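Attaching the record inline, Q. Sequence:
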Amino acid sequence: MEPIPLAKPDLGPDEEAEVLSVLRTGRLALGPRTLDFERGFADHTGHAWAAAVSSGTAGLHLAVRAAGIGPEDCVVTQSFSFIASANCIRYEGGEPVFLDVDPSTLSLSPDLLAAYLDGCKEDRGGLRDPVTGRRVAAVLPVDVFGHPADWNAILDVARRWELPVVADSCEAVGSRFQRPDGSWVHTGTGAQAAVYAFYPNKQITTGEGGMVVGDDPDVEERVRSMRNQGRRTGDPWLRHTRLGFNYRIDELSAALGVAQLRRIDEILARRGLVAAWYDQALEGIPELAVPGGAEWADPAWFVYFLRVDPGVDRDRLVEHLNARGVESKAYFEPAIHRQPPYASRDDLVPFPLAETEAASSRIMIVPFYSTMTQEQVERVASTLREGIPLARRPA
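Structure, as predicted:
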């Protein structure tokens, strides 16, 4: 039987035509397709500007650097995430402070954020971590699996302490949340900068690539300069105003993004249909909890994830699916605070991470992509039903 992959990009004639058109021009970098992609993405997300970069990780690094994070600083974030959301802080010499997640969103708990900041020491108008003495410089929540963080509450807490917010929305292209006034906006709206990613398993893809979006022109200037070796607009070719990086996106990737962006509504709708098929196919299996979503959230799922009952060995269930040609993985396991670069630092974890640990030990993902068929979804569901008794823990 044909294996079912975990993810698969949705590419067609439009994407092929856009890429070929760039190849025929011979201009493969710093060209018009990058500008087209940026303008289109800014319009799509409702931001004043968008700056395309080589990856979501590069975008996070630039956003953290633009926020002024340095070696004496710490940034409040979460451990239940892909490791790049913490690494980007260390790139600038800072340290993450890992707080627990809200079990309903799997993102940074606003209540714990408020409790942590209330317990910090005020010093010269700022906040200091009570254990390390580092300056608390920013907050970095993550839109896990495409479900928006509780942005209204998080932004309220951050504003109270005048802390900049960097949004890791790398998994949330197309996801929205509802503001108190009833309007719907894209994830990360209200943050100093939000970062999206376009790896091949994301909602739309450029192969590798990412986008930093925002509304502050000063942040835009720093991001655009730093991604291009530190050149500012108007600088001669070999003039570099500040320290920068080669984080540019290439024209071929941008062209792919232009085509994907034209089809984004179609792609997201199809992914929503596949998620609905899963919800229906897995109904009535008490050992598996399907994603769901908050009333104020309109998630565009990055993956279709399941919370496995503690009475079932999640890892054995994953092995069962993989052995039968249904690709599956545990996510995020281990969580960042248990990864080797961070595991020896107790000072990075001021409070217990009970929800993080529970999610890391119980969540798995199954095949999910826009071109998936209902028959494939039924096969995944059938394989799950078959595997649960085999993976059940002894009483």
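The first strand starts at residue 49 and ends at 53. The chain has two domains: 13-262, 265-391.

More tomorrow.
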